[in-house]
Specification:
The protein is α/β, with parallel strands linked by helices. The protein is built from 26 helices and 17 strands. Strands 7-6-8-9-11-10-15 form a seven-stranded mixed beta sheet, sandwiched between helices. A five-stranded parallel beta sheet has the order 1-2-3-5-4, with helices on both faces.
Length: 642
C-alpha cells in the first residue's frame, strides 16, 4: 500500500500532507475488510469511524493527548495507526491483540472500553485530573482529552451523568458524537430522534466562528464574556436556524455540527479550529456504519460482526455453512420459546437493552412488535422498567447478557428483589464467551446474584431445561434469574438419569450413580462433566466402573437440600464444577451448606479462580482453565487418587 505500510505510529501519519489523508482512509478500509474476512471481528463500526480516527491522530498529539473510545467496536483503525498493524492479524485471537482498546496493551489506549457509555466520565476525569496535578486550572491544559462516543452509547445513563458533570466543572473536554443511528440494531428512542432532527446552518456556524475570532483579536471577548454570551446566544440561534435550543448548549457545552464524518479533510480543519477552545465542547458528526463496503452498508445489523466472508462477493461463510441438523443456539431456543409463550398469553412481554437480534428476542419482535421493548444501551433502566410492568401484571422476560447485567445490579436489588416483583431475568452469554475477552465473559453472575434475597437462580443444562425453566418462572410469584451460555444448546444423547423428575423450583437431578465420589455441576458445563466422567471410567486404574456419581443441581438458589443431604451422607469427597468464579458461586454455596449442617466432606471446587480471563476461542479458554472435558477428567482422577 502506498501510505499505510509506512505508518507505524501517529508521528508517521503527521508527516503526510492533508491531501494524502483520503487515500490513507481508503487503504485502512481495504486493510480492515481483508483482515476481518478471514479473522472475524467488529467490522461495521470500525469502517464507519475510519475518517474520524485518521483526523484525530493527525490533529492531536497522541499518546500525550488522550483519546477515549466508546465503544471499542470503533477502534480498529486506531489500533492499526498506533503500532499494531503488523499484529492486527492476531486481533481477538488467543494470546493476540485484545478485542477492544486496553491500556494493558498500548500507551495509546487510555482506558478499557469493552462496554458502552463510559467515555465522557473517564475523559472528563482525565481532563480535570491533569489540571489538578499540573496546577493549570486557569489556562488551556497542556494535554487535550477527546471522548469519542458512538454506536448507540449515548443512550446509556452513564453518558448523561458524565455530560451533566461536564457542564458543571471547569474543563476543556472535546466530546465527538459519532452518530450513525445504530447500536448493533437500529437505535430507538427520543434522544436518537433528537439527533436526527438537529440541523445546523453552515452559514450560521461559519459566521459565528468568524465573529468570535475577530472579537478575540480585538480584545472584545475573553473566557468570562464567552461563557455569558454562550448562555444568551441560543435564542438568536433558534431564530436564525428555526431550531429549538440545542440540548448541549443549554447545558453550557459548546456545540459544533453536524459535520460529515466521512470527509477527512474537513474533519481535520474543524478539529484544528476547535481543539484549543476553552471549555467543554461537542463535535457532532454523521457517519454510516459499514461505510465503504456495500454489504455492510446494506445490512448493518448482520455486518456488525459478520464472521468470515468473501470480500469480492460479500457472501458470509457462516451463512454458507448453516445446517438444519445442528442443535439450535441457546438464544434461538430462548427466542422461539418466548414467542410460543407470547402466543399463549397476551401478558408476556420482552425487554432488552439494545440486543434484540443478539438475544433472539427479534423472533417475538417480528410477530408482536408492540410487546417487545428495546430500551437502548440502558441495562439499569431495562430492569427497573421491567419491574414497573411486572407491578401491573405483565409477564416480563428481561434478557441481558451476563457481563452487561453487572451494570444493573442496584436495580435488581432495589427495584425488583425488595418488592419481590416477578421479573424473569434471562441471562445470555453466561460463562466463557470467547474472543471478546475479559469485558464480556459472564463469569460473575452466579456469585453476585446469590446473596440477593427473594431471587431464585437456575441454569439449564439442555435446551429442554431452558424451555421448562421459562415455563416455570412465571408461576413462582417472584423474581427469577435463568442463566445460559453462548453457543449451541445440547440435549441428552442416551444419558440415563436415576431420577427423571420434571423441573420445579429447587430440585436437582442425579444423572448417574457412583460409589467413590460425587460431582455437583450447574448449567451447561454439566455436559462436559458427563463426558469427563466417561473418560475417567476409561482411564481409572480400578476395574470397577461407575466410580463417580454426577448430580445436576439446576438451581443455585434455592439449593436442593434433600440432594445435598444425600450427598453429604454418602460421599467423603465432593467436586463442584461451574463456569464462573468459584468465590461465591456453587462451590461456596455447597461448602456453606455442608458446614451449616455438620457435614464434613472434602469439597474440591472447579471453576475460575481469582482472575480476569483473556480473549480466545471458547475451546482454548476452557482448556486453559481446565474446564474442558480433558481438564475436568484430570482433576477428577487426581481427586480419586487422594
Amino acid at each position: 500500500m502506498k501510505y499505510l505500510d509506512s505508518i507505524n505510529n501517529p508521528v508517521d501519519l503527521k508527516q503526510l500532507p492533508v491531501s494524502a489523508l483520503p487515500e490513507v482512509c481508503s487503504e485502512l478500509r481495504a486493510f480492515i475488510i481483508e483482515e476481518l474476512s478471514h479473522n472475524p471481528g467488529h467490522l461495521g463500526s470500525s469502517l464507519g469511524a475510519i475518517e474520524l480516527t485518521v483526523a484525530l491522530h493527525y490533529v492531536f498529539d497522541t499518546p500525550d493527548d488522550r483519546i477515549v473510545w466508546d465503544v471499542g467496536h470503533q477502534a480498529y483503525a486506531h489500533k492499526i495507526l498506533t503500532g499494531r498493524r503488523e499484529r492486527f492479524h492476531t486481533n481477538r485471537q488467543f494470546k493476540g491483540l485484545a478485542p477492544f482498546p486496553t491500556p494493558l496493551e498500548s500507551e495509546y489506549d487510555t482506558c478499557v472500553c469493552g462496554h458502552a457509555s463510559n467515555s465522557i466520565s473517564a475523559a472528563l476525569g482525565m481532563d480535570v485530573g491533569e489540571k489538578v496535578v499540573s496546577g493549570q486550572k486557569s489556562v488551556v491544559s497542556r494535554k487535550h482529552v477527546v471522548a469519542v462516543i458512538g454506536d448507540g452509547a449515548m443512550t446509556g445513563g452513564l453518558a448523561f451523568e458524565g455530560l451533566n458533570n461536564t457542564s458543571m466543572l471547569q474543563n476543556d473536554l472535546l466530546i465527538v458524537l459519532n452518530d450513525n443511528h445504530m447500536a448493533i440494531d437500529p437505535l430507538k428512542g427520543g434522544f436518537t430522534q433528537y439527533l436526527l432532527d438537529i440541523t445546523t446552518s453552515s452559514f450560521y456556524n461559519r459566521w459565528r466562528w468568524r465573529l468570535y475570532r475577530l472579537a478575540v483579536r480585538l480584545h472584545l471577548m475573553d473566557e468570562t464574556k464567552r461563557q455569558q454570551v454562550m448562555r444568551r446566544h441560543n435564542n438568536l440561534k433558534s431564530i436564525l436556524t428555526k431550531q429549538p435550543n440545542n440540548i448541549f448548549q443549554a447545558m453550557n457545552i459548546r456545540y459544533f455540527g453536524p459535520a460529515d464524518g466521512h470527509d477527512v479533510v474537513d474533519l481535520v480543519r474543524i478539529l484544528r479550529e476547535i481543539k484549543n477552545h476553552k471549555g467543554p465542547k461537542v463535535l457532532h458528526i454523521i457517519t454510516k456504519k459499514g461505510k465503504g463496503y456495500a454489504p455492510a452498508e446494506q445490512d448493518q445489523t448482520t455486518w456488525h460482526a459478520p464472521g468470515e466472508f468473501c470480500v469480492e462477493t460479500g457472501e458470509r461463510k457462516a451463512a454458507q455453512g448453516e445446517k438444519h441438523d445442528v442443535p439450535p443456539l441457546w438464544q434461538e431456543v430462548f427466542g422461539e420459546e418466548l414467542l410460543a409463550m407470547a402466543r399463549e398469553d397476551k401478558r408476556v412481554v420482552g425487554v432488552t437493552p439494545a440486543m434484540p437480534s443478539g438475544c433472539s428476542m427479534s423472533i417475538m419482535q417480528k410477530v408482536y412488535p408492540d410487546r417487545v421493548f428495546d430500551v437502548g444501551i440502558a441495562e439499569g433502566h431495562a430492569v427497573t422498567f421491567s419491574a414497573g410492568m411486572a407491578k401491573e401484571g405483565a409477564v416480563v422476560f428481561c434478557n441481558i447478557y451476563s457481563s452487561f447485567l453487572q451494570r444493573a445490579y442496584d436495580n435488581i436489588i432495589h427495584d425488583v428483589a425488595i418488592a419481590q416483583l416477578p421479573v424473569i431475568l434471562c441471562i445470555d452469554r453466561a460463562g466463557i464467551v470467547g474472543n471478546d475477552g475479559a469485558t464480556h465473559h459472564g463469569l460473575f453472575d452466579l456469585a453476585y446474584l446469590r446473596p440477593i434475597p427473594h431471587l431464585a437462580i437456575c441454569a439449564p443444562r439442555t435446551a429442554s431445561d431452558l424451555k421448562a425453566m421459562m415455563r416455570l418462572a412465571p408461576t413462582l410469584g417472584g423474581p427469577v434469574a435463568i442463566r445460559y451460555p453462548r453457543g449451541r444448546s445440547m440435549e441428552d444423547e442416551g444419558l440415563r438419569m436415576k431420577d427423571e423428575r420434571p423441573i420445579c423450583i429447587g430440585n436437582g437431578v442425579c444423572l448417574r450413580e457412583g460409589k467413590d465420589m460425587a460431582v455437583l455441576s450447574i448449567g451447561a458445563i454439566g455436559n462436559a462433566v458427563a463426558e469427563a466422567i466417561d473418560l475417567v471410567d476409561e482411564r481409572a486404574k480400578s476395574q470397577e466402573p461407575r466410580l463417580i456419581a454426577h448430580y445436576d443441581m439446576r438451581w443455585l438458589k434455592p439449593l436442593d437440600e434433600d440432594l445435598l443431604r444425600e450427598v453429604g451422607e454418602r460421599f467423603k469427597t465432593i467436586v463442584t464444577v461451574e463456569d464462573g468464579v468459584i468465590d461465591g458461586g456453587l462451590g461456596s454455596a455447597v461448602l456453606e451448606w455442608m458446614a451449616d449442617h455438620s457435614f464434613t466432606p472434602r469439597v474440591i471446587r472447579l471453576g475460575v479462580r481469582d482472575r480476569f480471563v483473556e480473549h480466545g476461542s471458547t475451546q482454548e479458554l476452557y482448556h486453559l482453565l481446565k474446564l474442558d472435558k480433558e481438564g475436568i477428567c484430570e482433576s477428577l482422577l487426581q481427586a480419586l487418587e487422594k
